[in-house]
């Protein structure tokens, strides 16, 4: 299906749940309300005209200045229909929970665990939500958040450096 | 599966049986076994906790992350050009493909069209890399299963291509030959000669590998009917590449997205029927022939022309000019240290690496550095299906199942 048709169909069926639809560089990304995410994903999977049977990746973006800080991104593809869509939802920091889509695409299991591990977003109804890349007892936060330091944790600044300049 | 019934009749005593009180009770206990992190067959550092009932795998839990280096976080600290060498270290046996996938993603973000000759060069090198990857896979998979001979034959032929890479870009593994907008340097006459020689030399060798394995009863016994995954499950788990096509799903990004010079070449995408390890092996061997075909066609069709897109604000100047011309030197310096100004937006671009779909999801908030860069690593996603695919098989098959994904932990853990 062409992107415009896809967008039009979603707009028609779920106009109240859509927050934003962006088409850029030939890709369609749709931001939906968090509590409707599972329902829309199920529609995208099961509707014969949509037929999004393949989950490409699950990702997350941190926008610390926004009211709803985190963005969870599901990239979906249809092998039979050959079209792609990016399904996004926003999550506030105070209530970092999204419905898990593991019951729709089995591959979402590991991908969502990675998002939890790296960004600290929890997935409701996920069968095994544990850290995946970092050790289970890692307590220093979630590394891909923007407030996690990019260059060391500052301990280098506590070193006493010898003054090697000429006297 | 057949063994399920067997297992219940042999081990489980029916509690409702009238004589269940007097029957001797068999003590059954599940055995936990750690496989890895230091295990030669895990191709890196991977631990799997196997729950065993006898010699059958009841459940397996992969424990990943031993090789996690935070590449995605690292990407946020560098410019787009600076990230290219990091991609080499993802899947370190197939660095060229990672470069390719990343450069393609940035080109999509910046809306750059790569010149024709560069596209052909890229396709040729990518297919050479595919041959190397499949040879590496075939050798190690056979070695893991116990057939040592093929390993030597594969690595002998792989060595020729490694030397070819060495001559092309000065490195055997961490190549960094692709650039955003094109490639670093053109083929020399000697490189072309060597490649053509290899193309004549190689196809009989593939037959040789096949003879070694397909007439070997042990190989057939240990791959046929092992780790079967149905087409629906394979799609649902997000498998890609030969692992997906082994189940008969016709999904190859080279055809589906027709990028680079692939639409100008004629090649077929082999598909499996049973979705077992043998089919995935068979597909990879056939892909070797297809790669040779693609390289041949590219060499025939390739015309002279520029090897780098002419977008001075993004692409690098030719290296010769950097050393002789002040402006070019400043341009090179500024592009590497400050980067180019990317537009706000987000793109996802997948490329068919030999393991599967290697994708980069880049979010740009403007400026010279990616705001967020996510790597869709096929090895990681394939590991998600490990538990599903290994249930019910023998403990010795665990090694076969790792191997069948062509897993490399550098890419899996990032």
Describe this structure in words.
The complex is a heterodimer of chains A (167) and B (414). By secondary structure, chain A is of the alpha/beta class. Chain A has a single domain, classed as 2-Layer Sandwich (Beta Polymerase, domain 2). Helix content of chain A is 20%, strand content 26%. In chain A, the strands form 2 sheets. In chain A, strands 1-2-5-4-3 form a 5-stranded mixed sheet. The mean pLDDT of chain A is 84. By secondary structure, chain B is mainly alpha-helical. Chain B has a single domain (71-413), classed as Cytochrome-c3 Hydrogenase, chain B (Orthogonal Bundle). Chain B has helices at 2-11, 71-75, 84-88, 95-110, 116-145, 149-169, 189-214, 217-223, 231-236, 242-245, 253-256, 277-301, 319-324, 326-337, 378-383, 386-390, 397-405, 409-413; strands spanning 31-35, 47-53, 56-63, 178-179, 182-183, 344-352, 357-365, 372-376. In chain B, the strands form 3 sheets. Chain B has a 3-stranded antiparallel sheet. Chain B has a 3-stranded antiparallel sheet with strand order 6-7-8. In chain B, strands 4-5 form a two-stranded antiparallel ribbon. In chain B, helix 5 (116-145) runs antiparallel to helix 6 (149-169), helix 6 (149-169) packs antiparallel against helix 7 (189-214) and helix 7 packs antiparallel against helix 12. The two termini of chain B are 36 Å apart.
Give the helix/strand layout.
The complex is a heterodimer of chains A (167) and B (414).
Chain A lengths: L2 H11 L4 E7 L2 E6 L4 H10 L7 E9 L7 E8 L6 E8 L5 E3 L8 H12 L2 E3 L43
Chain B lengths: L1 H10 L19 E5 L11 E7 L2 E8 L7 H5 L8 H5 L6 H16 L5 H30 L3 H21 L8 E2 L2 E2 L5 H26 L2 H7 L7 H6 L5 H4 L7 H4 L20 H25 L17 H6 L1 H12 L6 E9 L4 E9 L6 E5 L1 H6 L2 H5 L6 H9 L3 H5 L1
Antiparallel strand pairs in B: 1-2, 2-3, 4-5, 6-7, 7-8
């Amino acid at each position: 299906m062409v992107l415009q048709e896809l967008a039009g169909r979603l707009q028609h069926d779920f106009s109240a749940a859509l927050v934003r639809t962006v088409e850029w560089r030939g890709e369609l990304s749709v931001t939906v309300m968090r509590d409707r995410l599972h329902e829309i994903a199920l529609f995208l999977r099961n509707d014969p005209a949509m037929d999004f049977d393949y989950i490409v990746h699950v990702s997350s973006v941190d926008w610390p200045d926004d009211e709803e800080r985190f963005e969870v991104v599901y990239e979906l593809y249809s092998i039979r229909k050959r079209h792609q869509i990016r399904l996004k939802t926003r999550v506030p920091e105070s209530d970092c929970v999204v419905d898990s889509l593991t019951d729709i695409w089995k591959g979402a299991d590991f991908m969502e665990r990675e998002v939890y591990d790296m960004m600290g977003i929890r997935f409701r109804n996920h069968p095994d939500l544990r850290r995946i890349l970092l050790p289970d007892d890692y307590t220093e936060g979630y590394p891909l958040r923007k407030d996690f330091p990019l260059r060391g944790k500052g301990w280098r600044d506590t070193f006493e450096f010898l003054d090697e300049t000429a006297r | 599966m057949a063994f399920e019934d067997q297992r219940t009749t042999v081990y489980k005593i029916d509690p409702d049986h009238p004589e269940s009180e007097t029957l001797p009770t068999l003590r059954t206990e599940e055995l936990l076994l750690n496989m890895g992190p230091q295990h030669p067959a895990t191709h890196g550092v991977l631990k799997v906790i196997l729950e065993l009932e006898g010699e059958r795998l009841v459940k397996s839990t992969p424990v990943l992350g031993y090789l996690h280096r935070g590449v995605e976080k690292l990407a946020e600290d560098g410019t787009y050009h600076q990230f290219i060498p990091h991609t080499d270290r993802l899947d370190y046996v197939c660095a060229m493909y990672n470069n390719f996938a990343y450069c393609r993603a940035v080109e999509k973000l910046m809306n750059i069209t790569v010149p024709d000759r560069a596209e052909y060069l890229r396709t040729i090198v990518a297919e050479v890399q595919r041959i190397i990857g499949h040879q590496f896979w075939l050798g190690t998979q056979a070695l893991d299963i116990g057939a040592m001979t093929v390993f030597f034959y594969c690595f002998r032929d792989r060595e020729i291509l490694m030397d070819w890479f060495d001559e092309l870009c000065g490195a055997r593994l961490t190549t960094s030959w692709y650039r955003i907008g094109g490639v670093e340097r053109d083929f020399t006459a000697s490189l072309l000669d060597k490649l053509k020689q290899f193309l004549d030399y190689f196809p009989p060798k593939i037959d040789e590998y096949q003879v070694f394995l397909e007439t070997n009863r042990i190989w057939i016994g240990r791959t046929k009917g092992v780790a079967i995954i149905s087409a629906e499950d394979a799609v649902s788990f997000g498998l890609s590449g030969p692992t997906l096509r082994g189940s008969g799903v016709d999904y190859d990004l080279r055809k589906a997205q027709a990028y680079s010079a692939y639409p100008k070449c004629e090649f077929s995408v082999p598909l499996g029927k049973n979705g077992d390890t043998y089919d995935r092996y068979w597909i990879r061997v056939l892909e070797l022939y297809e790669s040779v075909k693609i390289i041949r066609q590219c060499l025939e069709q390739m015309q002279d022309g520029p090897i780098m897109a002419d977008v001075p604000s993004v692409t690098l100047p030719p290296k010769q000019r950097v050393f002789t011309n002040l402006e070019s030197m400043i341009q090179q310096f500024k592009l590497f240290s400050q980067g180019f100004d990317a537009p706000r937006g987000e793109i996802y671009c997948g490329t068919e690496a030999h393991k599967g779909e290697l994708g980069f999801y880049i979010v740009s908030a403007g400026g010279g550095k990616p705001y967020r860069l996510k790597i869709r690593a096929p090895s990681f996603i394939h590991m998600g299906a490990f538990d599903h695919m290994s249930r019910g098989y023998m403990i010795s098959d665990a090694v076969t199942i790792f191997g069948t994904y062509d897993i490399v932990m550098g890419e899996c853990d990032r």
